[in-house]
Design goal:
The chain is built from 9 helices and 10 strands. The strands form 2 sheets. Strands 6-7-8-3-9-10 form a 6-stranded mixed beta sheet, sandwiched between helices. A 4-stranded antiparallel beta sheet has the order 2-1-4-5. Helix 3 crosses helix 4 and helix 4 packs across helix 5. Bound molecules: adenosine-5'-diphosphate and magnesium ion. Pfam families: ABC_tran. Keywords: Amino-acid transport, ATP-binding, Cell membrane, Membrane, Nucleotide-binding, Transport. It is a peripheral membrane protein.
């Protein structure tokens, strides 16, 4: 990608009453000579649900991993709830990073810990919550995701759908302001997908958590999203309401992509 290409257009923002929780400014990420993100700009306002769509390899996971500080940008700045996450001193990174929770495609539960401990571990070790408080909160969250009776099970004894619901409870246990969801149903058997999406719909509609979601589940994306971003070759090429983007996209590339997944 050449340096002469236009910067990604800024997504229009309502600067009135809204508060930006995520802000990427001119973020570039390269792996070797592969420029995965090219001066990417975007913002997500508090409480909004934004869905990223786009072909495999277009950099969607990389965006979420940057926000989780699992990888670092080569250029640009990342701000979370008004505080800089990158570049920033390590102590600040640790603090800002607590505002963000993520659910991965492959669950990533701690296999040696029972379900309850999977959910209490980070609140106790990272937030310094008392064990009793963390357990009470974990039981509430496991109830929310329909797994109140699985507290004492090990992850390997659960279905993929159940493991993913534990992973959702685990992320929420940190009381993040932002929940990142990376194709959370794509590793599941088809009959288990609906249960996980129902839990997420419920969370989207009943909490004020900000969501940044990568999914190919279009009916789910329609239900929960305030805005959908079509992503290709490291750029946002189109953004809009789910009705507009899925129903009447402006870009041929978006139409082409949608025809491959619908
Ligand atoms: N750790 C890594 N090392 C080298 N290349 C990577 C790494 N992570 C991602 N990539 C490359 O970055 C590009 C974008 O990947 P990714 O963000 O996973 O895309 P998506 O989630 O949209 O499928 C791909 O070309 C991928 O091969
Ligand atoms: Mg991905």
């Amino acid at each position: 990608m050449s340096a002469e290409t236009e910067p990604t257009p800024q997504i229009p923002r309502d600067t009135g009453t809204t508060r930006e929780v995520i802000r990427l400014d001119q973020v570039t990420k390269r792996f070797g000579d592969n420029t995965v993100l090219d001066r990417l700009n975007f913002t997500v306002d508090a409480g909004k649900h934004v869905t990223l769509i786009g072909p495999s390899g277009s950099g969607k996971t990389t965006i979420l991993r940057l926000l989780m500080t699992l990888v670092q940008p080569d250029e640009g700045t990342i701000t979370v709830d008004g505080e800089q996450l990158y570049p920033a001193p390590e102590k600040q990174v640790r603090e800002v990073r607590k505002k963000i929770g993520m659910v991965f495609q492959q669950f990533n539960l701690f296999p040696n810990m029972k379900v309850l401990r999977n959910v209490t571990e980070a609140p106790v070790t990272v937030l310094g919550m008392s064990k009793d408080e963390a357990e009470a909160r974990a039981r509430e969250l496991l109830e929310l995701v329909g797994l109140a009776d699985k507290c004492d099970a090990y992850p390997t004894h659960l279905s993929g759908g159940q493991q993913q619901r534990v992973a959702i409870a685990r992320a929420l246990a940190m009381r993040p302001q932002v929940l990142l969801l990376d194709e959370v149903t794509s590793a599941l058997d088809p009959e288990l997908v609906a249960g996980v999406l129902d839990v997420l719909r419920d969370i989207a509609h009943s909490t004020d958590i900000t969501m940044l979601c990568v999914t190919h589940e279009m009916s789910f994306a329609r239900d929960i999203s305030d805005q959908v971003l079509m992503f290709d070759s490291g750029r946002v090429i189109e953004s809009g309401s789910p009705e507009k983007l899925f129903g009447d996209p402006d870009h041929e590339r978006t139409r082409e992509f949608l025809s491959t997944i619908l």
